[in-house]
Design a protein that fits this description.
Layout: H1 3-13, H2 19-35, H3 38-46, H4 62-88, H5 102-105, H6 108-126, H7 138-167, H8 174-204, H9 214-219
Length: about 220
């Protein structure tokens, strides 16, 4: 089966009226974006539109009302993940990290173009906003675990970009300094939101050893 055909099949499933079918399709797409051949996410990123589920609502069963809310949020995240790939030509959760990684090696202009893309994707992820008592079935649990893993990788790249930004702050032009300060302030706000997201992950049952202390991440070099 070709990448295009597989994407078409899953996209068709995502247009179902059943929350179960749609949610399973989205989880499968997310799994393939993360763990499949890179050609899959490349193909999704090349499409003019991906998911138009902002009005999705399954009224056929009681659980459909709650799950439809998370489907709308989840599809928005997958849209942003795909769009981010299109804009920066890579999956930010998979780039090389560390002192000599991609984000630490970017020049100021590249950083100022890339960090807002990361921020938008990160916002969409955190907007999933599920409580532990809402993770009631295997489908939403699978989605949450994929989001949890993405959140750590995405934040790591985000954090390294901020460290690079701070390292170069006093060498920037005035307008770049203003833009960088705005990005940094937004970063602090998103860090607080991620802390709440990770609390949900721990309450859900993800082992504490797999959840980093954000203070350690932020201060690391």
């Amino acid at each position: 089966m070709s990448v295009e055909h597989l994407a078409n099949v899953l996209s068709a499933k995502a247009r179902s009226n059943s929350w179960v079918v749609v949610f399973k399709a989205l989880v499968t797409i997310h799994h393939l974006m993360v763990n499949g051949n890179e050609r899959f996410i490349q193909h999704l990123a090349s499409r003019s539109s991906l998911f138009t589920l902002h009005n999705f609502l399954d009224k056929s069963v009681i659980e459909g009302y709650t799950m439809s809310t998370f489907i709308r949020r989840y599809s928005r995240y997958l849209n942003e993940k795909s769009l981010a790939y299109r804009m920066i030509s890579s999956d930010i959760t998979k780039i090389k990290r560390g002192t000599h990684g991609v984000m630490r090696s970017m020049n100021t202009n590249e950083l100022l173009n890339t960090l807002p893309v990361i921020q938008t994707q990160f916002d969409a992820l955190l907007n999933f906003n599920a409580n532990p008592d809402q993770l009631t079935n295997g489908i939403i649990q699978s989605a949450f675990i994929l989001l949890f893993k993405d959140s750590l990788r995405l934040f790591s790249a985000y954090n390294e970009g901020i460290l690079n930004l701070l390292d170069n702050y006093f060498n920037m032009r005035k307008n770049q300094c203003k833009e960088s300060l705005d990005i940094y302030i937004k970063f602090l706000g998103r860090t607080a939101k991620l802390t709440e997201f990770l609390k949900v992950a721990e309450e859900f049952g993800i082992e504490r050893k797999d959840i980093p202390y954000l203070s350690q991440v932020i201060l690391s070099t």
